[in-house]
């Protein structure tokens, strides 16, 4: 495959009625996907003169996918933003990205007065189905930015990871080849489009003539509905975080006998616990279970291993896999390569490495560099490589963690916590279980207040915090102290608190 867009459009020519997207109530063909994205692309081409990115605002709707492709076909990168994102964060993303336009699949929040055009849901729907004069389009290609995913930043300002067409092509070709994906398979689409795990469903599915099957939050949050719903989906490829799988495994009938269609499991976004892997092998003996690894900055994932009984017998901690052929992993001790077999920071080198953070040269320079003219990225993850090339994960070097698949900068939460009116000083630490973050614990020096009980204070802190951060960033436990421990340099001693929480 040489081009993402032409490959997806090819299916509209070869199998126009094949289903690209099927929800509980709607289904859309590849022909519709091409028509809608083409019509939108022509409109964008007429309206926009510069190549600034386009924000797409919504949930897991088909209109989101059509908007992504429409933007890219007109030469614009897209920025997915979930409709439940806090207003402060939306504003920060707009400030960083300086987009050309906002496409609202869901109604745009009135509280944010955008200075750029906002296409409302009804208008967007009309644009999809209205044919326009066909003018030559110049789609995104090669090293041009295809999409931008915003992660959390250490100063409260999110970082926009720029992924090029070349990056995405490298990932998608690898995914289709190394995981046994066959044309026309049905993929679970569960991760929000603002979370790069979603890319592992969207582009392998659409480039192979498969079907995206979204699972909305209303279903996920209703266990009874979830478990009655799952067998009806006829899913063949399961893409999720291990955390979501742990929820599904709570249902005893979630197994190969009741869901026989499932052939491939792909996990990414956080560490795959051994217990989860063992239970899946037991329940789905005929399926292939893959663990993968990769930061957003290296396009979703770049290692994989099929988890088998033999692998689990050999390793206590599930390995993160073998490195894809066009990519190299180096283990660094500081700024030099570590000795063979030694642990150190994982450095990723190759065509899936991002060009850097959007409009943030300082952060880009700190994390991205070149080795022999090839892009490289400092992950902040610790690992080591075995003689056969297998990469083993050994935890975080810095204070960046993953919870339920979402990457979180602890300092980002600190920053927002200290803006809460009831908080004088705060820091957040992770509590681990089996090498996996189970919860975030906030240590807080509180301002004087009138609350009689700690839980009342906690409720008020959480409510105010939710105005600035995503739900998954809100700590699950709050500890109130008179003062926070300090290092000899006068900094908050986060490591000491981590040891306390995990002792």
What does this structure look like?
The structure is a single chain. The protein has 16 helices and 26 strands. With 503 residues, it is an alpha/beta fold. It folds into 3 domains: 4-306, Rossmann fold, CATH 3.40.50; 326-396, Roll (Luciferase, domain 3); 400-502, ANL, C-terminal domain (GMP Synthetase, Chain A, domain 3), CATH 3.30.300.30. The strands form 7 sheets. Strands 11, 12, 13, 14, 15, 16, 17, 18, 19, 20 and 21 form an 11-stranded mixed sheet that branches. A 4-stranded parallel sheet has the order 4-3-5-6. Strands 24-25-26 form a 3-stranded mixed sheet, with helices on both faces. The chain is globular and about 65 Å long. The mean pLDDT is 93.
- Please name the CATH architecture of the largest domain: 3-Layer(aba) Sandwich
Gap from first CA to last CA = 51 Å
Q: Work out the count of structural domains.
A: 3
The CATH class of the largest domain is: Alpha Beta
Q: Quick one: how many beta strands? A: 26
Unreliable parts: none
**CATH level 4 superfamily of the largest domain:** ANL, N-terminal domain
Shape: globular
Radius of gyration: 23 Å
Derived from helix and strand composition plus strand pairing, the structural class reads alpha/beta
Percent range for helical residues?
25-40%
Mean residue pLDDT: 93
CATH topology assignment of the largest domain: Rossmann fold
Described by strand count, sense and barrel closure, the largest sheet is:
11 strands, mixed
Strand content: 25-35%
Number of helices: 16
């Amino acid at each position: 495959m040489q081009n993402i867009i032409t490959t997806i459009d090819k299916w509209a020519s070869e199998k126009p009625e094949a289903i690209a997207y099927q929800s509980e109530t709607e289904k859309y063909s590849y022909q519709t996907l091409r028509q809608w994205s083409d019509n939108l692309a022509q409109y964008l081409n007429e309206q926009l003169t510069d190549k600034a990115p386009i924000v797409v605002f919504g949930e897991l709707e088909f209109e989101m996918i059509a908007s992504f492709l429409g933007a890219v076909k007109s030469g614009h990168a897209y920025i997915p933003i979930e409709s439940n994102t806090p207003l402060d964060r939306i504003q920060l993303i707009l400030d960083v990205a300086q987009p050309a336009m906002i496409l609202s699949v869901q109604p745009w929040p009135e509280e944010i007065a955008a200075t750029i055009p906002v296409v409302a849901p009804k208008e967007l729907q009309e644009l999809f189905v209205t044919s326009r004069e066909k003018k030559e389009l110049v789609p995104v290609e090669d090293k041009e930015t295809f999409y931008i995913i915003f992660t959390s930043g250490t100063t409260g300002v999110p970082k926009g990871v720029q992924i090029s067409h070349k990056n995405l092509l490298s990932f998608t070709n690898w995914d289709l080849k190394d995981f046994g994906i066959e044309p026309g398979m049905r993929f679970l689409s569960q991760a929000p489009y603002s979370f790069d795990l979603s890319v592992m469903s969207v582009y392998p599915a659409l480039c192979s003539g498969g079907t995206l099957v979204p699972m909305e939050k209303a279903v996920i949050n209703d266990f009874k509905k979830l478990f009655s719903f799952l067998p009806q989906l006829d899913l063949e490829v399961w893409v999720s975080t291990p955390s979501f799988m742990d929820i599904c495994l709570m249902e005893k009938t979630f197994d190969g006998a009741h869901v026989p269609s499932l052939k491939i499991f792909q996990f990414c976004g956080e560490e795959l616990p051994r217990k989860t892997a063992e239970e899946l092998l037991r329940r789905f003996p005929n399926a292939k279970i893959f663990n993968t690894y990769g930061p957003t900055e290296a396009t979703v994932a770049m290692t994989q291993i099929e988890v088998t009984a033999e692998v689990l017998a050999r390793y206590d901690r599930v390995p993160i896999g073998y490195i894809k052929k066009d990519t190299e992993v180096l283990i660094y001790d500081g700024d030099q390569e570590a000795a063979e077999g030694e642990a150190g920071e994982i450095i990723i080198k190759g065509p899936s490495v991002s060009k850097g953070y959007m409009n943030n040269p300082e952060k880009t320079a700190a994390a991205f560099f070149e080795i022999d003219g090839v892009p490289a990225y400092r992950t902040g993850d610790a690992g080591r490589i075995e003689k056969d090339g297998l990469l083993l994960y050994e935890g975080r070097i810095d204070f960046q963690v993953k919870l339920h698949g979402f990457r979180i900068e602890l300092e980002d939460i600190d920053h927002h916590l200290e803006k809460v009116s009831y908080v004088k000083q705060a820091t957040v630490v992770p509590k681990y279980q089996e090498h996996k973050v189970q919860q975030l614990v906030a240590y807080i020096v509180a301002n004087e207040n009138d609350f009689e009980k700690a839980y009342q204070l906690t409720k008020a802190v959480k409510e105010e915090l939710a105005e600035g951060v995503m739900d998954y960033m809100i700590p699950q436990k709050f500890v109130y102290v008179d003062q926070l421990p300090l290092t000899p340099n006068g900094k908050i001693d986060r490591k000491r608190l981590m040891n306390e929480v995990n002792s």
